[in-house]
Write a structure and sequence with these properties.
The complex is a heterotetramer, with 2 copies of chain A and 2 copies of chain B. By secondary structure, chain A is an alpha/beta fold. Chain A has a single domain (6-11, 24-316), classed as Thiamin diphosphate (ThDP)-binding fold, Pyr/PP domains (Rossmann fold), CATH 3.40.50. Chain A has 11 helices and 8 strands. In chain A, strand 7 (216-220), helix 8 and strand 8 (245-250) form a beta-alpha-beta unit. The radius of gyration of chain A is 19 Å and the shape is globular. The mean pLDDT of chain A is 97. In chain B, the strands form 3 sheets. In chain B, strands 3-2-4-5-7-6-12 form a 7-stranded mixed sheet, with helices on both faces. In chain B, helix 8 links the parallel strand 10 (204-208) and strand 11 (230-234). Chain B is α/β, with parallel strands linked by helices. Chain B has helices at residues 6-20, 44-48, 60-72, 91-98, 101-104, 134-138, 151-163, 210-225, 243-253, 268-279, 302-308, 312-320; strands at 3-5, 24-28, 53-55, 76-80, 114-119, 144-146, 168-173, 180-182, 196-199, 204-208, 230-234, 237-239, 256-263, 289-293. Chain B folds into 2 domains: 3-182, Thiamin diphosphate (ThDP)-binding fold, Pyr/PP domains (Rossmann fold, 3-Layer(aba) Sandwich); 196-320, Rossmann fold (3-Layer(aba) Sandwich), CATH 3.40.50.920. Chain B is globular, with a radius of gyration of 19 Å. The chains are: A alpha/beta, B alpha/beta. Chains in contact: A-B, A-C, A-D, B-C, B-D, C-D. Bound molecules: thiamine diphosphate (2 copies) and magnesium ion (2 copies). One magnesium ion (MG) binds at residues 158-160, 188, 190-191, 253 of chain C.
Chain lengths: 334, 323, 334, 323
């Protein structure tokens, strides 16, 4: 039997979508977008320190997938993890505070952008080590199974990360043990300065699924409806015990690799073209207006609400106290 | 007191802790079907099931990483490394993930994982199956590192390690597994972070751990006959180090020697020596002596391995020169 | 296009095989067999120390592949590397001396069975780390390419090793860079005490080739003719610049995992059945006699010659001097 | 003498060695298209081609392993680790393969690989992008470990490392790349294994390396004004250690302090201290002081990172207490 990955299409119509669901898609995507735009701005203004990687242009992926998760499901994310964290339901204020290195942050300022984690919403951590998360997520999936729970774990990774050996070890283990885990590759075409096809031996990373005996599925990662529906089916199956699957979401990294990246490895035109033609948020807006399932005012209302929420988060983070130097020695051992 | 082997002692520890707490499980390569290379898992799958005593793929990064992830999701995994030599494969999972998660995430989650790592020289196993790597891990904040020298401590420390909410590395010397020794029948825990003065003496403090500690005891007996009274301190834990026990002993004896099987350069001996040179130099009546392996990989051929090994004679020689 | 691995059959007839080639198959396989039987015997008698893993039952694989290699081609082997080393042309005396830990051994007694290497015949080393060899072999292939040579590198690995992340990293790199390397999985059904299917998520490890965009081929590893012909084609292509390939040889580990293994994880009957029905050497004998391309006398002559050669190697190793303790400090730095 | 940056100095070293020897090449993540995170590879692909300046997949085990394999097959690879923090990923390739091949195979083959590893604190990069891990590698026989503190040494040591037939780790502090300093125009090599007395003094020997050595020089100036004369020894190589230079200096000054950015416990300072406590304790008029990072992962927030950092003030304080 031939097992090339399946390519999923966008639903032909979204007329039967629940209004609240549509609103939540937009709200989440906009929240991420504004959050990240603020991060860029504040970083360049010197307010936010460290290394910061934004998710602009990839919002539909995280949103479409996370909408299918329960709050007790687990996710494991990467250095580019703000979007996932927001979509999983983390509180923006504490999140922004962490990114500012402030005391009320999720990690009390010890982690920062690359080490965001919010265990209260099942977000098991970003990771500064590319490909560091696969095996942790596999272990979380193992634990839920051993504990007799029906939680699902989702691990996110980039095209660049797909080449790390940890992917192979985790995928094989998850498949050999039939663990409830979804591997989500966000193929945004770039691994830092490197076009993924120059270092990745296959065009479709989902091709690798077959080598583990798991289903491989490809979807347009900038189409929130397609991502949502594809992930829904996969996550339902996994929750029922089908074992792991690999979902590749084709997307594009609109921002630089990190905020402040001179981007000497690609042209502004390339990026602008994608942004103009394939921005997941514009595409959502056009489609819902086109199919008349939402109105411009509804969209604007959400936008406004989100704008306010993010601004409050920024203000909160700015005003928040820094950790005291003495806290350096806390949280090392239990 | 009854005597059992080191291997049995660790087996009892596993059995008791797995019985006590359903979230404790163990995974590793080739541990279930045959009971572990040193018999250290024998019978456990029959008692607890192959789900709680898991044979894994040959994937050290996935085993340790999955241990960490399972801990984050509510389990208390014990992970067997097969041989400590393979810890390089999962070094990132150990030092960048397991060790840092509690701190880096601001104390949100604990990471109760135990890594069991059989180490040391045995049977001319050569360069990649004979190493003692514990020193690396004392340089990693967030880990505890335990390294018993006898069955009783092995049992008590393994139980403590499993109950500890921090990640603990448990180094067990391959040559110790067959060693017999007295082990209490009633339940007990040996505290992590406490060294033990096993043999009192007044002329020199001999600090060691693991198999080598037994070598030191033999050297101490040899020296006793020559009129040198050796106090033998078994570190048992190398991180956090029990400074006080060492400093007190040195204050009494005025001399310090540190012995380990790992190569001398950059070894645990350096840290012990540096602590004493920093905090108790005025007590000292002699240079601090370190005995460790020569600075080479472990060679295969018998005469070379023999030259490489730490023996009671070598330890005694080094100490004689202090007087 | 579907890219399931290809299954190669045995040639329908071997009548057109060159007599010298047939003889060399038999000689190499018998050399390995006797060598390994001697190792077992001498190890159990306490003459040979350390950990020793024998290749008995897998001789056809190493022989069939290596027959296609030039002496300047490279191989990288594993803890179970005696067979490959012999088939690549290493001198038996020095090899046995190394296994005995004697001074004239390839590694002057510093390596032993698990660390045999003979660079003079392009044997880049056994490895005590399962899966440690993939990346080294990939580098050797890279070097030959950069140096403008047409050498081919072959890396051997077990079913157990196939799950190591190093496989993934090396396979992707080799494929992304089109390197001249053949990955040979000797699927002998067992990884130490563990049946491979309990920890390996696919039945055919060659299924993994597709995930790297390289050809995957499966062959009966106990049929020296099938292995030889399959490898010939692959190696020719690789030498011409086709890029890497993955060849899975289905075989069986007749011996214990290491010499002295109590083998409590499988029955004697299972092993005996395979040995009786599928011993590569008996199969060779039967076929050449059946198809009348060799005679019993020819086989016996070779056997005798090989017996003598191995006995001499053992005698050489026994008589050879041990290294002097002072040599401990030699060969550390150049 | 002309002044160039540390980054440029290493670039010149690469350029000269790649021009001299066609078998020298460099590979790593994101080094070619953008010239390296610190500009340390800028222009090289244009001059030598993208085949000799290779962007690799994100696969540290394959990069280092392939470096070793390429060396075995006749090349002289330089491998960039991106950040030293990722060396845990390829630890097995470093310590079990690269370091052991020459010895374990009886000297049959040399392994002329250089690993370049940018390390240390910069820009609040936090726990997984700020580490100093050099101490692990001084505990690994078969490796040489080099760690310059300024542009001139960086160039000379990198050239020596590339010409060395042994595997060499070249740690370069991320904060040093922008540092300017005098670098001779004519070709030169800086010997591996030789420390340097950069500043003479008579009251105390201050041993350090990498960025921290510059911190020590500042501390020395501060102390000078207070009447404490500090001799500053730049180790430059931490394996093999240049014992003699240290011992000679201590014999003169009678006091020793060792400073590094890595955590103190189990760090290089322990080894230096232990060597002196073993071989020159009688010269000492004060305890041996070590200054290293606190025993925690590197925290993100500014006040925490600041508390974590080694500063001239902290070094000066530690030394004042010796008198
Ligand atoms: C093990 C490791 N190697 C290298 C890096 C440096 N690095 C950080 S992000 C990145 C690129 C990641 O690309 P991809 O996985 O595609 O994720 P994306 O940034 O596109 O979201 C690299 C090379 C790292 N953090 N960890
Ligand atoms: C990294 C590593 N993990 C574990 C081991 C222990 N070990 C040695 S051989 C072996 C089984 C290997 O199985 P396979 O790859 O199928 O090769 P085979 O022995 O069957 O030839 C194991 C687990 C090792 N040597 N290295
Ligand atoms: Mg990417
Ligand atoms: Mg096998």
């Amino acid at each position: 039997m031939c097992a090339k990955p399946v390519r999923k299409k966008s639903p032909t119509s979204i007329r039967n979508y629940d209004k609240d669901l549509l609103k939540s898609f937009y709200e989440t995507m906009m929240k991420i977008r504004y959050f990240e735009q603020n991060i860029q701005e504040k970083f360049l203004a010197g307010e936010i320190p460290g290394f910061v990687h934004v998710y602009i242009g990839e919002e539909a992926t995280g949103t479409g997938i996370m909408t299918n998760l329960r709050s007790d499901d687990y996710i494991q994310t990467t250095h580019r993890g703000h979007g996932h964290t927001i979509a999983k339901g983390a509180e923006l204020k504490r999140m922004m505070a962490e990114i500012y290195g402030k005391k009320p942050g999720f990690c009390k300022g010890k982690g920062g952008s690359m080490h965001i984690a919010d265990f209260s919403v099942g977000m098991l951590g970003a990771n500064g080590v590319v490909g560091g998360g696969y095996t942790l997520a596999t272990g979380a999936a193992l634990a839920t199974r051993m504990l007799g729970k029906d939680q699902v774990t989702v691990v996110f990774f980039g095209d660049g990360a797909s080449n790390r050996g940890t992917f192979h070890e985790a995928a094989n283990m998850a498949a050999a043990w039939d663990l409830p885990i979804l591997f989500v590759c966000e193929n945004n075409q770039w691994a830092s300065t490197t076009p993924y096809r120059t270092t990745t031996s296959v065009e479709d990373i989902a091709d690798r699924a077959q080598g583990y005996g798991m289903p491989g599925v490809i979807v347009d990662g900038n189409d929130v409806f397609a991502v949502y529906e594809t992930a829904r089916k996969l996550i339902e199956d996994i929750r029922k015990g089908s074992g792991p699957a690999l979902l590749e979401c084709k997307t594009y990294r609109i921002g630089g690799h990190f905020v402040g990246d001179p981007e000497m490895y690609r042209t502004k035109e390339e990026v602008q073209k994608v942004f103009k033609e394939n921005d997941p948020i514009s595409r959502f807006e056009e489609r819902v207006l086109d199919e008349k399932v939402m109105t411009r005012e509804e969209l604007d209302q959400i936008k406004e609400k989100v704008l306010k929420e993010v601004d409050e988060a920024v203000e909160f983070a700015r005003q928040a106290p820094e950790p005291d130097p003495s806290e350096l020695y806390q949280d090392l051992y239990v | 007191m009854r005597e059992i082997t080191f291997s049995q002692a660790t087996l009892e520890a596993m059995d008791e802790e797995m019985s006590r707490d359903e979230t404790v499980f163990v995974m590793g390569e080739d541990i279930a079907r045959q009971g572990g290379i040193f018999g250290q898992f024998k019978g456990l799958p029959q008692k607890f099931g192959f789900d709680r005593v898991k044979d894994t793929p040959i994937t050290e990064t996935a085993i340790v990483g999955a241990g960490v992830g399972a801990a984050l999701a509510g389990m208390r995994p014990v992970v067997d490394m097969h041989f400590a030599d393979f810890m390089g494969v999962c070094m990132d999972e150990i030092f960048n993930q397991m060790a840092k998660i509690h701190y880096m995430f601001g104390g949100q989650k604990t990471v109760p994982v135990v890594l069991r790592a059989p180490d040391g020289l045995i049977n001319q196993a050569a360069a990649q199956h004979s190493q003692s790597l514990e020193a690396w891990f004392m340089h990693v904040p967030g880990l505890k590192v335990v390294i018993p020298s006898n069955p009783a401590d092995a049992k008590g420390l393994l139980k403590s390690a499993i109950r500890d909410d921090n990640p603990v590395l448990f180094f067990e010397h391959k040559a110790l597994f067959r060693m017999s020794g007295p082990v209490p029948e009633e339940e007990y825990l040996t505290p992590i972070g406490k060294a033990k003065v096993v043999r009192e003496g007044k002329d020199v403090t001999l600090v060691s751990y693991s198999l080598c500690f037994n070598t030191c005891l033999k050297a101490a007996e040899m020296l006793d006959k020559e009129g040198i009274s050796v106090e033998c301190v078994d570190l048992r834990t190398i991180s956090p180090i029990d400074k006080n026990t060492i400093l007190e002993s040195v204050a009494k004896t005025t001399r310090l020697a540190v012995v380990h099987e790992a190569v001398k350069q950059g070894g645990v001996g350096a840290e012990i020596s540096a602590i004493v040179a920093e905090e108790a130099i005025d007590y000292l009546d002699a240079p601090i002596v370190r005995v460790g392996a020569p600075f080479t990989p472990v060679p295969f051929a018998k005469p070379l391995e023999q030259a490489y090994r730490i023996t009671p004679e070598k330890v005694a020689d080094a100490i004689r020169k202090m007087f």
